[in-house]
Design brief:
The chain is 76% helix and 0% strand. It has 278 residues and is mostly helical. It folds into two domains: 90 residues; 178 residues, no CATH class. Helix 2 runs antiparallel to helix 3, helix 3 packs across helix 6 and helix 3 packs across helix 8.
C-alpha cells in the first residue's frame, strides 16, 4: 500500500472520529436537556407534594376545628335542652313552653344588642348601631324563631355572651373613630352599616350557634327605611312586621318567666361592668 493510500485511509478515519465525537456531543447535549427536564419535573412534583401535604394538614386542622365547634354546639344544645326540661317542669300549667322558648330567645338577643349599643364607660350609647344589628337579626333570627325553627332558639344566656358584647363594643368604638356621622344618615348607612351587619353574621352568630348557617348568605337585611319605620312607627308594626310584633308581645307576656329562667339578670349585671373606654 502506498503512502498516498495510507494518508487517504487516515483522513477517512479522522473524519469518522470527528463525526462520532460530534454525535456523542450531540447526545450529551440532548441527554443533558432530558436530565434537566426530568429534574425540573421531579422538583415540581416535590413542590406539589409539599403543597398537598400542607393542604392536608390545613384540611385536618379545619376538620378538627369543625368537629370541636360541632361538639361545642351539641353540648350547648344538650345543656339548653336540660335546662328547658327543668324549667318546663317548673312552669305554671297555663304556660306555653314553645311560646316561652320563642320569647326567651328574642329577649336574650334584645339584651345582647342593648348591651352592645350601651358600650361606653362614660355613658355613650349607639342607638344607630342597635338599628343596624336589628336589621339583620329580624330576618335572620327573629323571624325564623317565630316561624317555629327550633334550631334558632336560645333559651339561656350563651356562654359566649360577654365575649360577643366585648367584640360588639369594640366594633362600635372603631365605627365612632371612623366616621363623625351616625348610621341613620343614609350615606353613612350605605357605607358602614354593612360592616356592623357582617360582623354580626360572620362573628357573633357563629359564636352563639356554634357554626355558620349557609342560608344566612341569602338573607336580606332590612333597609334603613324599614328599620327606622319599625323604631318610629309603632302603629305600623303589626301590619308591616307581624312576626316581630308577635314576638315582642310574647316577650312582654312572659317577662317574669324570662327573668327567672334565662340567666339574663346575672348577665345584665356583668355586662354593665365591662363597658369600654371611648
Amino acid at each position: 500500500m502506498s503512502k498516498r493510500e495510507l494518508d487517504i485511509q487516515l483522513y477517512r478515519l479522522s473524519q469518522q472520529i470527528k463525526k462520532g465525537e460530534a454525535q456523542v456531543s450531540s447526545l450529551e447535549v440532548e441527554f443533558a436537556k432530558k436530565i434537566k427536564i426530568a429534574r425540573d419535573v421531579i422538583g415540581d412534583l416535590r413542590e406539589m407534594e409539599e403543597k398537598i401535604a400542607q393542604a392536608a394538614d390545613r384540611f385536618k386542622e379545619a376538620c378538627e376545628k369543625d368537629t370541636k365547634r360541632e361538639l361545642h354546639r351539641l353540648r350547648e344544645e344538650l345543656k339548653a335542652a336540660k335546662v328547658a326540661r327543668e324549667n318546663a317542669s317548673s312552669l305554671a300549667p297555663n304556660v306555653d313552653a314553645v311560646a316561652l322558648g320563642k320569647a326567651k330567645t328574642l329577649a336574650i338577643f334584645d339584651s345582647l344588642i342593648f348591651a352592645i349599643s350601651n358600650w361606653s364607660a362614660d355613658g355613650q350609647s349607639a342607638g344607630d348601631v342597635e338599628l343596624a344589628l336589628q336589621s339583620v337579626l329580624f330576618p335572620t333570627v327573629y323571624e325564623r324563631v317565630m316561624k317555629g325553627n327550633e334550631d334558632y332558639r336560645v333559651e339561656t344566656v350563651p356562654h359566649s355572651a360577654l365575649e360577643i358584647v366585648k367584640r360588639g363594643r369594640e366594633t362600635v368604638k372603631w365605627l365612632r373613630g371612623t366616621t363623625d356621622s351616625a348610621l341613620i344618615d343614609p350615606a353613612t348607612w350605605d357605607e358602614h352599616a354593612c360592616i356592623v351587619q357582617q360582623w354580626l353574621v360572620r362573628d357573633a352568630l357563629p359564636l352563639i350557634y356554634g357554626a355558620r348557617d349557609p342560608d344566612w348568605d341569602d338573607d336580606r337585611p332590612l333597609s334603613l327605611t324599614e328599620i327606622v319605620e319599625w323604631r318610629d312607627m309603632p302603629a305600623s308594626r303589626a301590619l308591616h312586621f307581624p312576626l316581630i310584633f308577635d314576638g315582642m308581645d310574647l316577650v312582654e307576656k312572659y317577662r317574669d318567666e324570662i327573668r327567672e329562667f334565662t340567666g339574663l339578670p346575672e348577665f345584665n349585671k356583668q355586662q354593665v361592668t365591662t363597658r369600654i373606654e371611648p
